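Give me structure tokens for this 164-residue protein.
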Amino acid sequence: MQILIGIAIAVPIIVLIPFILKWTGGGPKGLGFGPGGLNPCAQSPNCICSEDDREAFHAKRIELNQPADPQALSQSLLRLPYTQLIQVVQGPADDSQYGKIPEGKFLIHWEFRTPWIGYIDDVQIAGTLGERTVQIRSASRAGYSDLGVNRKRVEVIREHLRNQ
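Here you go.
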């Protein structure tokens, strides 16, 4: 009988944990530009960034088939499922959320949501107008580990942009 009571208590708690993590994740963290480009990841392994030199957090910059155009890039990723464009900022700008964006540079911010629970991951692409490579950063808002979801997302984005 005690085992059944324990199970009856444990199962709802286990089911609720993902939703609790989602609701307590807060807003986006680490967005915008730092001294060398996009801000590096924090210490939790639920982030990947082309400008982070640490192996566990590093991704290669994305090579484009054509010169970088923030308007085309911003619309292109909307073709991926569960994606919402948040903002496109072109420099020169001094944005309260994204920091100082130098002239000729741009930053695009999207939210990607998981289908069932709705976890939010923030994806940013930054670059220089007319160049053929862009920086990328993908980070989860909640939890500690993402089981490699952001790394896989960056590769999906890389492949998507390669086929444009």
